[in-house]
Structures
1.
Amino acid sequence: MSGAHDHGHAAAAGNRRRLAVVLALTASVLVVQLVGALLSGSLALLADSAHAATDAAGLVIALVAATLAARPATSRRTWGYRRAEVLGATLQAAVLLAVGGYIAVEAFARLADPPPVAATTVLVFGGIGLAANLAGIAVLTRGGHGGNVNMRAALLEVVNDALGSVAVLVAAAVVALTGWLQADAVASLVIVALIVPRTIKLLRETVSVLLESTPPGLDLDAVRSHLLSLPHVIGVHDLHASQITSGLPVLSAHVVVEDGCFHDGHAPQVLDQLQACLAEHFPLSIEHSTFQLETAAHAHHEPAAHR
């Protein structure tokens, strides 16, 4: 157990280091692309710099969340700050959606009345941004990000920013070769198309955790059926499953067992069988389980909401 515990702390520390490095790279991209946007008049480059600003803010949130998540549990916060990463990812997604909406409105305005764009300047600054984004992706994917939604949110932002940089470069090349100024606005809309759908998916996932929905892929009816098939189990109620954070699903249930189990000392074996059943049939869906064993008569003493 101590080895797994140490490994978890090492992984968390590695995540924080990677986030800090990528934050520095993203902040550099923000400054470079903002200067390039002001010099070239490119909305696509300005949009990409706004995206970089959002990334930088999101990475700050992710870094703070990862640091909070590593804090130990206390009697007041029994799960520690494990849910901080979900809150951070939710905030990142919400900000990304707001930025995407602004860019879309401005891009449609420029389709009708495109201003001049210095294509060569855009190519230079866009290339610098893309190189930094690729370096950030390499840092975040080294060692893997697993099921950590906070790291996935950070990686999503950097990947989207890299794709946005590609769109900026393509638009600049089109303007330089053909003089079609609307290409800059089209590239901005491409960036929006990259931001919004995957961000909505992330937002739905994090909100689902915050609402304590059943973990994806876990069928509670199947869980109930398997538990009821065990010897001495005659009922299962008050069955709940949720996620404390990404990769930490929990389950609790009241399990009615035969009265004799409490008289002959068989109850601990029933508990072992319940946990073994979950481990065998749902090994990837349930990290932590809590069972309350009770007799059939106990149900009469419980509030209706627990029956």
2.
Amino acid sequence: MAGAGEDEQLEPFGRIRLDRIYADWASGHHLNPRLLASELAATLATCSRLDQPVNTMHACVFSDGRSDRTIPVTFGALIDYFDAASAGQQALTIATSSGPIPAASILIWRKWIERLVDEATERAEMAAGFAQPANDSGTLSLAINGSAATNLAPPLPHLSGSAPVILKAQQAQLRREGENKASEQLDKERSEWEREKQENIELKAQLLTERARSQQLMEETEQYRREASDERRAKREIEESLLSIEEKLEEAMVLAEIMRTDNEFSPPELRLMVMCCRELSHDCTVDAVAEKGIGLREQVRRWLEKRVGKPAEIQIDRFATALTLLSRKKGGAPTRSTRKKG
């Protein structure tokens, strides 16, 4: 079906409003529109029962910018519409189960109606004698112009390929083929677009999955790093604690070695001095002077007298000096009791 007018509206592309079909024939088809409408109605009648709904891909109600596929368009309704057009009474509405619907609200798929129009055209041409070498001029005139011609006109010669009627038919056929190719190309591009759109959706989903996985790996790596850092810190603290224990143990071992009576290298006076310091200061936990209110020399003198008899003055001085040095090493020489609690 060719020769659409400039004011034709396609909603969407590849569809045509029902009320524009007859106008297209009047402006672009080589047959009389009323004859073609009659033949198209007859062709539709051979397609299916009158009450059979047309496939919604081929004919559907279109309103408010969208298709309403809940209202079927039957073959009988289309036949009635084109029958009325063939009688010169183009209907403004078409009957449906929901009542009359404006013909302008019915969208027809071009490729489907064009196949039927081609069949109807062939029927009309055969009926008018276009397929014969010579025809009655009155019949030919009626088929082309729709007017009653006299039978007194001379017979028409065989139509050549350059005849205006043939050229017009060829032009109409070329237009139809161009529209069909454009529609097929659009369908192909639309399918390709849908495929690419689906691929993009899938790729986006994969990207989101990979991002989530990457984020999870980063969080796990950070967690492992913190745990490893905590472990290294704990290990370092343990090592420092062990080193401190080893140093204290070394001091204790030295003192223990000094206090061994069977150690031939341990001076007896040194062992005696250590014993004096331990007893007077309670193992270096109190200030001996503040504890008893007696000077160190006097306390040392009394302690030595109990252990070894009357000591020499120089021995008393040595012991008092050692005890004083130990008190200072523990934090100075306090003036009052510093016995540890607990």
3.
Amino acid sequence: MPFPFRNQPVTPRIGAPEESLASVLTEVRGLELQPGRLVTDVLSGGFRSSFRGGGVEFSDVREYVEGDDPRTVDWNVTARLGRPFVKRFVEERERTIVFALDLGSGMRAGLGVWSARQAAARFCVCLASMAIENHDRVGFVAADAARGVCRFVLPKKGAGHVLRIARDVVELPVGTGASAVDLLLQQVAGRLRRRAVVFLCSDFAGDAPLRTLSSCARRHDVVAVRVLPEEVLRPPPALLAVSDPGTGAVTTLDFAAPVVRRAWQARVHAWRQRRDFEFGQAGVDCIDLELPAQATIDAILVPLLAFFRRRERRGGR
């Protein structure tokens, strides 16, 4: 049955109420009230150990020993002291984190308390809070197909800078155009010189291939954050309008009919497999955020903790 992937209620969703950074921060900071700050300690520890620094920096020099790479010889010191010395480098501990946010119209989806857009915002604010604590550089880019790039902020350090990015993450409006994942990846690959950890937040709807994913992932540590509304995974038994994420064409389907539900589930399963294959081919990790029916920050924390544990077992990237 050739219906597209995205669906929405027959009565158009107006969108969840507008939110402020303060209200989202209140939810995230509520974690600190838990006994012993267990959750925040585990999250921060996982964050620090899961990502490497963005490069290497000069440390000092030492005398050459057999087996050292001749390319590391410091010729100035060698000439001054009359015997060979080599440069030593250490990995930078400072990380560069970039949030790449898809503001395509599909991010309005979500029949529960949060839209896909709101779930993605909470995910980014959780990580932004950890970045402040760890003194990391944070950048931001957002786009949709109709408006193009809505915001591009180069990575910098400082609580004020990170909180301004967090405000944009929460408050920038969703557009009317389709997803612009390739445009986001092009911006990251073309404008960021320092290697970064890029959290690419999108519903990844549609069948169009992600053409720039592999090239961007060669330069940066890209993590796909796939937001999955409840109606995509488990549509309610009702009439729903299904829209094509590329053309906007709308078809009404009866999800109370078993044949429709089976066809829908097969379509969603095939779509997820295609995307998983693309992520795997590009060497990109994926975090699936399933939108909850009720507001609970656990919907963000559980997949995030699972991701950190996977990374730790692999020793980072």
4.
Amino acid sequence: MRGSDYAELRAFAAIAEHGSFARAAAHLGVSPSALSQTIRGLEERLGIRLLNRTTRSVAPSEAGARLLTRLLPALADLDAAVADVRTLRDTPSGLLRINATRIAAVQYLAPLIGPFHHAYPDIVLDLVVEDRLIDIVAGRFDAGIRLGEMVEKDMIAVKLSGDVEMMVVAAPSYLNRFGTPQSPRELRHHRCINFRWPTDGNLYHWEFEHGEETLEAAVEGPLIVNEADVAVQAALDGVGIAYLFDHHAQPAIEAGKLVRLLDEWTPPFPGFYLYYPSRRQAPPTLRAFIDFLKQPSTISARVR
């Protein structure tokens, strides 16, 4: 392998992962033009196109996909080898890549970044925020953060937050006009604010539980969103009934701007977890982050 081969292959993997020259260049710390030149040189040397490019997207060709299948495990092994060498240092250092949903990143992870940086100043945290459920191994992430119910059974999970609740809420102005539903089944007669899943584009069916009884409600209304803050504002303006995470709804409830409905049908459920593959030894940077999460001071700050 030539000295430049590793950099070229790493660049190719980054473009395939991010689906964009610009995003991959930002991740690698190079210019898009330099990255394009690197890939052009790799394709010319191999004599085959590795990436199909359009004005809107970049995706591996058939040859590129075959190369990625062999390349990604090899890069993971190289990363692990470098991480093993870094364990000889007194202080963990290197890159820690975490994929998290927006809610988890903003509500639970962001408050920990400052204290974690002060505890481990040589660790670079690469946080990618997206709501779609991804394969963290294929994406070459060290860990992910999702709701406990979405974490695969073959993953090792570390609790990041306390239990969470979903809350059905509406503005007093809405309830004065349209009345108050007494059960989830009555929601079909109300104007509700729908949420569209970023994963498959389907509308979320509101989930309810009361004792042994569970049900899902496919609601209808004048608004469909994929951003909770928009739903909060619409609910405040009396557009309709919203179904929100507790941290989104609670401030407005306490201020008397929203009223909680059907609370006996929305019990708490397990919150967010940091998870990583059980079949792979955690790199030192991830072990440091897990140790940080387990510190008593950190637990008291994040589990609510």
